[in-house]
Design brief:
About 60% of the residues lie in helices and about 20% in strands. By secondary structure, it is α+β, with helices and mostly antiparallel strands. A five-stranded mixed sheet has the order 6-8-9-11-10. It has a four-stranded antiparallel sheet with strand order 1-4-3-2.
């Protein structure tokens, strides 16, 4: 690319240079020729007038004993000797077959050997029109001077061309250097070295800045795509793992029922086991369907009565808490918050269910409360359960992730909670300490009517 650019630029430069020299040379030659032409015409007219006057005087005198043709020849020779010193040749010829009188003269250029002339010919006015007058100006010196000037121009062009070649190469090399750096960095980025950056000073510094910004964006997008791909693969792996266990149990129980002779009590037990596993898979399917539904979902927000919502949640979860022997408390300082009620209820139920599973049987406490802070409504679910390890805290909202596998479930609860919070433009914060407990806060947008 650089070689092609150099050759094209150099040829274009030479074309412009020789075009300018040609135009200047042509213009100088034309001006010089015009000057010589005008000079010769002035000289011709002056000599023509003087010679006509002197010949007329000779013919007017008509002196006896004087041969007029010889006298005219002598006069013409005297003119010739006088003007030869100025490189002007004069010729006066008597013609027997003379043309009709003419008032104009013919001008032309001629060359003899290595000499150049301007030739003007004409006839003397009547009654002397049988004399043909020829004026010849030697312009060899001027022509040689013009040719010398042209040669100087040509020599200058050749020298300039020789000097311009390395100079132009160095200039283009300096110009292309930052572009080479950009190209090299681009190739490295194309070869997956996304951390590559360039540092260029001068006029191209803005390009370097934009390139680095683009590279950072690409690196960020690539990392995001890699994380998403990894997350999808992890999701598939976890889903396969989660679904395999209940399917294995269902298949095993069905095979057992088919091959073994079971009494009524054993049939009930095995059937119940199959139903439990089917319900587990149904829960997974419903959770995944809800996650898919919430993607790009815009909730219908209305005022939600917090006290009534908490009571509804208490009735839904009361049996589960009573069977596990975990205490459940509700308290609210907020009358209303704005959102889609069924989604917010699902959010709270999932948080409380996770909190319940984290607590030991017959020993634990879960608290659900709503408070005001800085004009926001904040839902808080706190438990006294096993807590979440610090290294796992940032992963708990990933699908199928569970910090402690013994807690059961599919690991989709917090994923759903995060998705519901996101569609409500709410923030979800999780704080946890192992063997102490966990606190989850959902911070909603400002409460309507509050400042």
């Amino acid at each position: 690319m650089r070689a092609r650019t150099f050759i094209a630029t150099y040829l274009f430069l030479l074309f412009i240079l020789f075009l300018i020299i040609s135009l200047v040379s042509l213009n100088m030659n034309r001006n010089q020729i015009n000057i010589l032409r005008e000079q010769s015409q002035r000289d011709y007219r002056r000599i023509y007038a003087n010679l006509t006057r002197d010949i007329s005087v000779l013919y007017g005198r008509s002196i006896v004993g004087i041969n007029l043709p010889q006298a005219v020849d002598a006069l013409a020779h005297s003119y010739t000797r006088h003007y030869i010193e100025h490189d002007i040749h004069i010729l006066l010829q008597h013609e027997n077959n003379f043309p009709a009188p003419a008032s104009y003269a013919e001008i032309s250029f001629m060359q003899q050997s290595d000499e150049h002339f301007i030739l003007i010919t004409g006839y003397l006015p009547e009654p002397l029109h049988f004399y043909r007058f020829e004026y010849r100006l030697n312009i060899t010196e001027s022509i040689n001077s013009m040719q010398s000037t042209q040669r100087l121009f040509l020599i200058f062009a050749v020298i300039f061309s020789a000097i311009a070649a390395p100079g132009l190469y160095l200039i283009l090399k300096n110009i292309f250097k930052p572009l080479d750096i950009v190209a090299a960095a681009s190739r490295k980025i194309a070869n997956e070295h996304y951390h590559e950056r360039i540092f260029v000073k001068g006029e191209l510094s803005e390009i370097a800045t934009d390139f680095n910004r683009m590279a950072e964006k690409i690196e960020s997008q690539i990392r995001q795509l890699e994380e998403e791909a990894l997350g999808k693969q992890r999701f598939i792996d976890n889903f396969a793992h989660e679904i395999r266990t209940p399917l294995t149990s269902v298949y095993g129980n069905a095979e057992y029922m088919q091959k073994a002779l079971l009494d009524e009590g054993e049939n009930i037990i095995v059937t119940q086991s199959i139903m439990d596993e089917a319900n587990h898979m149904k829960g997974i399917a419903n959770s995944l369907l809800q996650l898919a539904t919430l993607r790009n979902y815009a909730p219908v927000k209305n005022p939600v009565n917090v006290a009534r919502l908490f009571e509804d949640v208490r009735q839904t979860l009361n049996k589960s808490f009573r069977e596990r022997g975990v205490r459940f408390h509700c308290a609210s300082d907020v009358d209303f918050l704005f959102g889609q009620e069924d989604l917010i209820k699902s959010l709270i139920v999932n948080l409380c269910t996770n909190a319940l599973k984290a607590c030991s049987a017959n020993d634990g406490e879960v608290t659900l409360k709503a408070v005001r802070a800085d004009g926001h409504a904040i839902l808080i679910v706190t438990d006294t359960g096993e807590g979440i390890p610090a290294e796992s805290l940032h992963k708990v909202t990933e699908a199928f992730f569970r910090s402690f596998r013994k807690s059961g479930g599919a690991g989709l609860g917090l994923t759903l909670c995060k998705q519901i919070a996101d569609v409500h433009n709410a923030e979800m914060h999780i704080e946890s300490t192992e063997n102490v407990g966990t606190s989850v806060k959902i911070i909603f947008t400002r409460i309507k009517g509050e400042k």
